[in-house]
Design brief:
The protein is mainly α and 280 residues long. It contains 10 helices and 2 strands; from the N terminus they run H-H-E-E-H-H-H-H-H-H-H-H.
């Protein structure tokens, strides 16, 4: 699968600074989130789901309600719970970040407005549109426009060299924006795979216990058999459910990122073609 921040920023070079990845600090934050989810899941599992009130027979763990049934899922359940909590955290983080990256104006509409201003050689108005857009496309366009304006007064380079200079500036700005858009998507793709595998692992453990109960000499232990089957089914349900949500969220975010990437490509093409046409 794949991997996923961006910064909607304001004038001057803030777009570049905001786009710089802070690998060390972000890695620590991500690690803290994962560990916190794991600890929280274990505390809730043992203190809340494993409370004696949730069982008719606390010693044999015969569940009296749904919480007790979940507890019979075994020690894999808190791991699956922690993956679900981690998924929720990163879905919220990616949603907030990518929605900001989309900006306040649709990329296509924004590019058309910039095209109109550039056709009238009104670069300041085009820059104002970038500030209004306040997204990744606006950040890249602003960086290109600043170089665009610089090239309009440059007398040392020919038109082709000026266009290449603008294109290079756009590529550098894009290189700062895109990695932050895709950052942390790796957690969603990893959870989509691992949640299913953990669920299957818990299912296998539950079936082993169920068959052990059936294989006892004499009458099978009905409680142990029921617990084994419950463990298998609960793990399967939680694993598949978590994985399904992760896949849906991953595909949704990558679709939005593809749209933003297309808007960035379109903005770069617009700038270079406009300069080549208006400043031959």
């Amino acid at each position: 699968m794949a991997d996923v921040k961006t910064a909607a920023v304001k004038p001057n070079n803030q777009g570049h600074r905001a786009g710089k990845p802070k690998n060390t600090s972000m890695t620590m934050v991500n690690l803290i989130i994962v560990v916190a989810c794991l600890v929280f899941a274990h505390v809730v599992f043992h203190a809340y789901f494993g409370h004696a009130d949730n069982f008719r027979d606390a010693e044999k763990h015969v569940p009296a309600n749904f919480l007790g049934t979940i507890y019979t899922g075994g020690w894999v359940i808190p791991i699956l719970m922690s993956t679900a909590l981690t998924l929720i955290c990163f879905v919220i983080e990616r949603a907030l970040t990518i929605m900001r990256a989309k900006g306040k104006t649709h990329a296509g509409e924004f590019v058309r407005k910039v095209q109109y201003h550039l056709a009238n050689k009104n670069i300041d108005a085009a820059l104002a549109e970038c500030d209004k857009q306040s997204g990744s496309v606006g950040n890249v366009m602003r960086a290109g426009l600043l170089k665009y304006r610089e090239m309009t007064t440059n007398t040392e380079l020919n038109t082709e060299q000026k266009v290449l200079s603008i294109q290079k500036e756009i590529e550098e700005a894009t290189a700062l924006e895109l990695p932050m858009l895709e950052k942390n998507l790796v957690f969603l793709s990893t959870i989509a795979s691992c949640a299913t595998l953990f669920g299957l692992f818990g299912t296998v453990l539950g079936m082993i216990r169920a068959f052990q109960a059936m294989g006892q000499a004499g009458a099978p232990d009905a409680a142990a058999l029921a617990n084994g089957i419950s463990e298998a089914l609960i793990n399967t349900a939680l694993g598949i459910g978590t994985s399904a949500i992760a896949i849906i969220a991953y595909n949704y975010f990558t679709t939005i990122i593809d749209g933003i990437t297309f808007g960035i490509d379109e903005s770069g093409f617009t700038l270079t073609q406009s300069f080549a046409t208006n400043y031959k």
